[in-house]
Amino acid sequence: MSVSHGFNATATARPAPRVAVVTGASSGIGRSTAIQIARRGTGVILTSHGNQAGGRETVSMIEKDGGTAVALPLDVGCSADFPAFRDSVAAALRETWQRESFDFLVNNAGFGQMAMFEDTTEQMFDELVRVLLKGPYFLTQTLLPLLADGGAVINTTSNAARFSGLEAGYSAYGKMKGGLVVLTRYLAKELSARGIRVNSVSPGATRTRIADDAFARHPEVIPRSRPERPSGASVNPKTSAWRSPPCSERKAAGSRPRTSRSPEATTCESLVAILVVAGW
Questions:
Q1: pTM attached to this predicted model
Q2: Is 71 exposed, middle or buried (0-12, 13-18, 19+ CB in 10 A)?
Q3: CA–CA dist 56, 52 (Å, integer)
Q4: What is the C-alpha to C-alpha distance for residues 160 and 229, in angstroms, rounded to an integer?
């Protein structure tokens, strides 16, 4: 008896590559997140605003590791530009990955500004609202038609919105990040019908270029962040950040990942990558 083996195109076809959009990836946590996601086999569309060269450098770093990335300009504080940005994302998806949708959105872009409560002006407050709260809200809304069912949204918040991170001078900044935490909960509820997971990650003080490279310009502020760090030092985005229990503990507890302090070290950007790619 002879057996004929036919060619099954459906069974042997390669799956479409997954793609993530990461805002604010020209440096710091955003850059490290984009690199970690790309190392897990996911294509990356990354954005930058005031540091376009940094965005291109992130692309080069990803490509050097064998990944694929595209850099697009985006000012998250200007929601009027979001429809045009969505068109640019759609074009990049078609041209680079032959796709009509993407899988993961990481709302990371932002900036830090310190001012005591009595010194905070309406202009400062409104700028923080535009970039840290209104931006992620309406950018997610604008990109939602392109986000695939079963995908994920990750919002980078801050421990400034948590009791453990209360620090004088960050009442406005912490308020915006707290609002983003609440938005995360509502999006998780509303987007669950499409199987879209929504989580937030709240890193502590991380030595990045935030606030016009404040850590480099004012190294005297670094010791202030040390008491709450298990390692006794401020965090570097390439080394240690907030801790997360090992996945075995999380699965045993049947809970979502949490950005709490624990002896098991997981870098902040790696945690974002895990949340995105591993499907938690």
A1: 0.74
A2: buried
A3: 6
A4: 14
Bridge-based pairing state of the strands 197-201 and 69-73: unpaired
Task: Catalytic residue, from 137, 170, 173, 186: name it.
Answer: 173
Active site residue 170: no
Closest by alpha carbon to 104, among 44, 41, 20? 20
How far is the C-alpha of 74 from the C-alpha of 61, rounded, in Å? 20
Q: Where are the beta strands (DSSP E) in the chain?
A: 19-22, 43-48, 69-73, 102-107, 147-156, 197-201
Cα-based distances in Å from 260 to 138, 202, 266: 28, 9, 10
Residue 192 to residue 187: CA distance in whole angstroms: 8
Indicate the SS3 state at residue 158.
coil
- Residue with structure tokens 């695939």? 148
From CA 93, how far away is CA 30, in angstroms rounded? 20
Average pLDDT by stretches of 10, the chain with 280 residues: 41 74 93 93 95 95 97 97 98 97 95 87 93 96 98 85 67 86 96 95 60 50 47 40 34 37 41 58
